[in-house]
Write a structure and sequence with these properties.
Length: 60
């Protein structure tokens, strides 16, 4: 019984951590970048990937 609850918790945590940057729309990327800037997490790898993806979508 305990194994089943641990497995269910692990599956929920794994699906929550899967962040598909390539599938986010432009507005979603901007929203995530703004959230991370508010929290002061501009040095995180996820933030850097979001910024790189934004520059791929908006070549200037």
């Amino acid at each position: 019984m305990a194994d089943e609850t641990n497995a269910a918790q692990t599956d929920g945590a794994a699906s929550q951590k899967t962040k598909k940057i390539n599938r986010l729309p432009k507005a979603g990327i901007e929203k995530k970048i703004a959230e991370l800037e508010e929290k002061g997490q501009t040095r995180s790898v996820y933030y850097k990937h979001l910024v790189a993806r934004r520059s791929e979508l908006n070549p200037s």
